[in-house]
């Protein structure tokens, strides 16, 4: 077998962040290689480097023994590297057939031959009935298929598939898996990034694990799944073990008193058989969970399992298709998102979503624009500053000048400005250095001690389970496990949900 | 893009000013119809409304006085939307419908393509208000202009300089457009003939708003006269900034009329425009027959708004047309063209004749007058036989004004 | 491998690809109908020349603006270069106007190549903004370089040799030359609709990253589209210069003219064969109708109509026809 792709010391920097860190990687002809790793591990960036969509910071890339490190993307396509985009990029106003014809022309300059080849691909991908439909009229599943089909029109030697299964229903997913096998059988070499573990574990000849931009493990699916480094990468570090009881963090807050009050503050959040969907893609299937007053509940699960969607459903940022969301005596699923906030439900979104050009204090004040909380602005502001002394120091600074950890604190602080009874945190530790992660988890505990009920979505499973009273494990939109945090920590089920074994 | 289209559409909305066509006349006999093209909408609409007033009053006067040998005159006034394309479309329709003479257009940018077309179609065009010399220089047998050429605007200044005696050097600052260059050329030629050194000569691009750097350089030359040619907004800005940089000259001259010779110059410039001397085609206080009275009637027709000399020139243009139609052997384009060539008519605007001189063809050689801003009003100061006031000279330095 | 591949004649496949020969047929039909204009509207030839000439230039604009998705608000540069190169060669060197027009095409192509090579590296609204700047610069240069262009006083064409025995100043002759130009532009567009190069341009318009991923070199193809667009626009400019008989930098290189071309394509529908023609007919013909029936208020009504079109047919009037047909 000959080598199709090799990277040497491949590195990509975004400002100070090392997105891909000296990755050494080689693929043999005819292989299917799975590229896995937690969110932000650098998988898509790696694809962008190999396909030429991004320039490398350093290192070299070889394709079939020939260096392509600085070749533009279109040359790599000509050479035989096909790719799909995770954020799908069809040519929306062209028909499906024309979408494919664009690529078909690359290998078949003659129109007749190009049309014939595009027709062959369209048939193989099961898109023939949509041939004359415009690409923008396709469903998500259809567009994903179109992504693959378009890459196939290049008759690629190497095919990079970025999340072509995630978001499909089981039947569609099965079809795609079958298709990928067939593509391989036609002679293409495939590298795929996929969050649906069962799929990638089943399909791949070999798996490469990226974490924080580095290649941390490599081997057969079985080897990788039992590799302790991989488990740590997915389930979080053990470093936060001693982070638990600290009263030092919130001066002026008698931690013990508040802590004892937890059982009788605020109403209970309850989801009953909730179904939710983005367009035609159903994400939540019969999700039921409960958060009792004063509790800290963690919701964990693999990427794309439906964690964020659950939070969005509670915040009414997404319509509930079926089922109930109850908060005390109120049915949240029948309210507007505005009213939900008014009831005391706050959400700190993933990625923080601060107003970068505004100062720290201005950012905080946007959190209390509701009539209910506006009068308490000063009080709440003082409370937040007491919780985060650093923010008081930086109150006049623009949010964009804060470090990642400080920005996360600010995002949480903004959530607290609406004086919530239930605070929902979406991946507060994402993209932060380990020491900062610890600090964030300490803050979460402090908030709970203030008597605020917390629903926490986290990738850092170890840390989350350690501090949570109870936890739910969600997999492919279904709650598969429930129990006290420390107990789940030991569970093999959790591992299965994450690694798909 | 969608927003851009909306913005554009809004601009059209704003530009679309009100108007209507000027009317027919009540008189006996079969009416004689001629065409007129002016800018009733678009960027030149202000001047189009002046021309409309002039044409309308002229038609009234002509038909009240018995029309054209008993037949009423009808001027079919069409809007060119300030665009050459439209003007050409209108002209074609006029000619196809048998109109033997067309009046217009207002702006030189519309008139020049129109003049080329009319000459080719062999139908006479009688222009009242377009300023560019090139309309009648070299011109054509079919294009006649009532309004002055730029040489005529510049000439009286040099007569004035000669009389004053103490003028030595001249600085020139004009806008970079056709009119500006015409004025610049006239100034250069006449300065050379008169033996006045030109110590500064520059054209600025339209749209410039900060003139101070260039004004400071002029200040350094210590020129006795600063001769300028600009459109409305620039003229006011220039005078304000001249005061700001404390540039003193013995005479500030609006050598190309236009921006320096309209009511809004007085209003916008305030006390900075005091003592400025500008050439002008016409002024209501000159001693031409019926000038005063006509000015009052035009003002009434325009609902109290101050008419500019464009209205009077349009009135004169219509009067000249009527005269030619009365005298023409046949009411054909050729007949009318021949009649126009022998025009010699005294109008409220002054005497109108079409002469060939120094490269011009069918150009009215009427000299222009000079007006000085005195106590925030225009006072005619030259030529002496029509003047109603005396020149204040030299212009007091800025620090000596209160 | 699964089922036998679809043959090219399979209806599903055929429907998926823009019907090639068919649209070319439509082009011929439309041009043939237009050829009767001078016979039917013999008193409105000037209007007809304006409509067809602007339709041709707007279609040329659309090669870049509609098919390639690169919004140019500086196409007056090529109108101006076409008109000036032709006129100056006629006046100063006694060159025949048609050779002058060819030289104008050459000059426009050179300018477009340099301009495109620099600005097509920019994505987003930068090309549009840069195009305004380039046009303004060109206008200022033309205005000040009086020894070459005649400067602000402008250029007039008193006489021209006959072209194949025809008087170039005759509106009828101008009409048919404009029609040939429009034909060229529309045939070019119909070729873009279905050719390999055309699909490249459309793919770049739709998504540049994805286009690169299927082997398209966007910068090169955008420059090529720009050259074609500039060349056709320049031909239109030469004819426009003859049509006017007199022109000056202020009018020829104006933003107003650039915007008009873009607006015609947008109103009629960008990236369609006949959109620019529909747009030119509506804007030029429509404004003439309005001028006659709403004297003094035509621009107001004109602006109002444009707003209505943008609100209710944002993809252009040409697409309304299609929508109605579907209903």
From TrEMBL, chain B:
GO terms for biological process: amino acid transport. The keyword Transport applies. Residues 31-373 form the Leucine-binding protein domain. Keywords: Amino-acid transport, Signal, Transport. It holds the Pfam family Peripla_BP_6. Belongs to the leucine-binding protein family. This is Amino acid ABC transporter substrate-binding protein. The lineage of its organism: Bacteria, Bacillati, Candidatus Sysuimicrobiota, Candidatus Sysuimicrobiia, Candidatus Sysuimicrobiales.
TrEMBL record, chain C:
It holds the Pfam family BPD_transp_2. InterPro entries: ABC_transp_permease, LivM-like. The chain crosses the membrane at residues 20-37, 44-61, 73-91, 98-118, 173-192, 223-247, 259-279, 299-321. The keyword Cytoplasm does not apply. Keywords: Cell membrane, Membrane, Transmembrane, Transmembrane helix. It is a multi-pass membrane protein. It comes from the Bacteria. This is Branched-chain amino acid ABC transporter permease.
